[in-house]
Structure formats: structure tokens, C-alpha cells
Amino acid sequence: MKSEKHHLYVGVFGRRNAGKSSVVNLLAGQDVAIVSAMPGTTTDPVRKRMELFGVGAVTLIDTAGVDDEGVLGQLRTAKSRQIVEEIDVAIVVMTDNRISVFEERLMASFREGGIPFFVLHNKADREKATAETRALIMGKYAAPVIDFVALPAADRDVAVRTVGEALQAVLPSSVARRPSLLEGLMQAGDIVLLVTPIDSEAPEGRLILPQVQTIRDVLDNHGVAVVVRETEVAAFLQSASKPPALVVTDSQLFGSIEKMIPRSIPLTGFSILLARYKGDFERYLKGTPAISRLRTGDRVLIMESCTHQNTCEDIGRVKIPTLLRKFIGHPLEIEILPGLSPLPDEVSVYSLVIQCGACMITARQLHNRLRPFIAAGVPVTNYGMAIAYMQGIYDRAVACIL
Prior knowledge:
The model is unreliable at about 1-5 (pLDDT under 50). The chain has 3 domains: about 5-180, Rossmann fold (3-Layer(aba) Sandwich), CATH 3.40.50; about 190-270, Rossmann fold, CATH 3.40.50; about 280-400, Rossmann fold (3-Layer(aba) Sandwich), CATH 3.40.50.11410. The chain is of the alpha/beta class. Helix 12 (about 315-330) packs parallel to helix 14. The relative contact order is 0.10. The strands form 4 sheets. A 6-stranded mixed beta sheet has the order 3-4-2-5-6-7, with helices on both faces. A 4-stranded parallel beta sheet has the order 10-9-11-12, sandwiched between helices. It has 15 helices and 16 strands.
């Protein structure tokens, strides 16, 4: 089974007026970022999703100038630094062969953080990158320098191809390609049964992102995706001409769906697929059994990675805390960390971290948020794996992807 290119997050960095927004607008083919001769025009990061030749889906993130000044400037540059936590690759935009302390800091931070990057020497119609500039950047940071002209009249096809080729050149294969969600779990022609509840937490008129991603993955792997609510599972199994090769369910339904699916059919959850796809799956496997070791008064941190309206059926705020207290049988201190809120100052006080599926954040963001807890020896797991464990079907739910 083939591996497919995953969505790349590309941060565009540089000093004010280096032309970062012009680069993003040229690549996007539209004015997604405001362009002005006034320094500091870009404030909050601006995102644009697009396709790049030879690369696939990318999200370009235009950032504020790293040389911004004043109190507001410091806030803007702080937001730019936060973007570094989520990107897969960086583009440093510079002009006039000017390698200031700001470019030096940028390139050094990317090199130290293991973020591949290259330099676009913009406004090359005015002054091209010199051999000295190229030699310095390549020798010190192992990054290529590409002359670029981000003017409205520039040839967009050439610009897109140039950046796409540069991305391909600097991206390691582990970043450029990621196994699909269903890697090794199905073959062409297989039926994959996806059990998707429609409750108060379901978005109006839509499916949640992990369900959509899994449907697409089945199609990409030339399979047959059958999507049903939990109330139609039994009827489908009785009428199907051949059994599904795999059943994927919402983790909240593990207890009931497990009873309907014969043991001969592999069963897992959307959240567990995401855990393998972008999470620290090995850490999750080791951390999940720590649920049984929780004691009275232990602190558990539940980490959401998106913002949504909470209801009485909320999985992170209601259902998992209820399951935990019932499973453990004694009081626990359970805290919720919503969205991308700052991590607690002291992480070692927690006995367990339960991370959501993280469908709304990048793999890099997820790993960066979990890293301090792992370094402190705190066990980590995710929603689906924790629910499967507490409902007694953990071994079955993870068996097919081990």
C-alpha cells in the first residue's frame, strides 16, 4: 500500500517589509495578506491553504516581522514565535543580501529545532543574492538561497514551481510523506465500516474531521467506505454480502459496538487511528495502563485541542471524567486544558494526561505540547485509547494496528 503526502504547514518569516506577504499572495494567486510599504502591516498570522506542484496540500502562514518594535510589536513577534511550534518547514524571506541579527536568530532557531528551511532572496529584480550570501547561509545553516521576485506581475506558475521544488529539496522523507490513516489495515476492494453517531456534539449538517479523513483514506486506498449510525450496524452486518475488513467506531460507542462485531473482524476507533497517524503512539501504549494506577486525589489533565460549544454529551469534559471516576472508584482532581492554552507551569504534578485525537492541530504542535509531560515522566494517553481501556476492550481496539 502506498504512502501519501500529508498536509504541510509552511511558515513564512522575515523582517518587516522583506516582502513576506507579497510572497504569500503571489503563491496563493490572490490577496490573502495586506501588502503595504508601512512596516508592521502584518499583525496576526495569516493562513492560506493551497496546492503546490509536487508537494500537495500546504497551509502557508504569513507572520509578523521578527524585527517589530514596541509593546505591540513584541506581542506580534511572540505570535510569530508560537507559529514555529506547529510548522513542518520554514521559508525565510530576506532582501538586499542583508543578513542581520534577526535572520541569524531565525535560521539558528530553525536549525536547532530541526525545522527544515530555505531562504527566498526577495526583490531579486533589484539585487540578486551574492555568492558570499549563498556561501555563508549554506555553510552555516545548510540552507539553499533562491532568488525570487514577488511582484503582482510575476509569473505565478514559475513562482509556485520554484517554491515547490525548494520544499521538496529540503524536506526529509519522514516529513514529506506520512503513512495513511489506514496504512496496513486494508487492501483495495475491502469494505470498511465506519460507525458515526449523530448526537448533540456532532456539527450541524457535517461530520467531524476524523470521520471525513477516514472516509477519504478509504477511497484513496481503493476501498469501499460504508458509513452508518450505531442504530444501523446490526442491519448492515446481516445484509452485507461480505463482512467488512475493518470496523472503525467513535470511541464513545466502543462498549456497545464491540458486542455487535464478531471477533474475527478487526475493530478500532477514529481517535486511535489518529493516535497512530500523528500522536506519540508508543508513549500512548505505555501510558494508557496508568489509568489503573490512579489513586485518591491524583491530578489528571484532559487536553482538548480545539474550541467548541460544550454540552452534556461532551466527551472530554463530561464523558471521560465520568468514566474515570466510575472506573477508579475514588475521587480524582480532573482539570481541562482547552484549545491551545498555555501549558501549566508545573507539569510533574499530574499523574496522567489524556490528549484528544488532535485532529485540529499539527503533529508538531501535538508533540511539542506532550513533550514536557513526557520529559517529566508523566504517563500520556488519548481519548480513544483511554475509553477503550476503561471499557475493557483496549487489547482488541489496538491489536489491529500494533
